[in-house]
Amino acid sequence: QVQLVQSGAEVKKPGASVKVSCKASGYTFTSYGISWVRQAPGQGLEWMGWISAYNGNTNYAQKLQGRVTMTTDTSTSTAYMELRSLRSDDTAVYYCARGGGFRELLSPWGQGTLVTVSS
Amino acid sequence: DIQMTQSPSTLSASVGDRVTITCRASQSISSWLAWYQQKPGKAPKLLIYKASSLESGVPSRFSGSGSGTEFTLTISSLQPDDFATYYCQQYNTYWTFGQGTKVEIK
Fold first, then answer.
1. Which of A2, A42, A82, B99 would suit a FRET pair with A93, their CA atoms being 20 to 30 Å apart?
2. Of B39, B24, B37, residue with least CA distance to B90
3. Between A and B, how many residue pairs show a Cβ–Cβ distance under 8 A?
């Protein structure tokens, strides 16, 4: 079955960077994009951006432009999301989801990775 | 950017109740609307896509309707497993989520 498995929880200091991984299985990795969505504690869902696993094209949410980089490693069917210059309001659960192409659904989702930014 | 507005924010209901959640888009999104269910500590789960198509494996008590800017999610007879938070999401132009509707036990 299609499955996305994410890396474990992280604790970072303000100003640091974090890199979250998302390993896909059960489908042809390069046939779909991977999107990233985050959820601050007690809050709703915020789309962060997506990457085409086929050609590496990316599209980032405007508010994160310049701080986020999404990459893929097709040899291991793994997607990565790096967020730099972390602030306390970046504390959230970060999800990857299959999908992200034009009018493409986001499903399924990874289990989520809690990133805590605290001094 | 397309904004999505859900109502109500919280809904109190009993097992067996018929429940309706509304989602409005700030501009027409045709039928490019999905509904997700999220339980505490879990990832969202896709329920409905293309406004009214039921995802495989999702119980038939869930249904969706609407097009353009107005959409609804209906649970025909609320079950104990349905107490959760529900999000609408447009995927006409990138992806935007509604703020969520928490369905709680009355």
1. A2
2. B24
3. 46
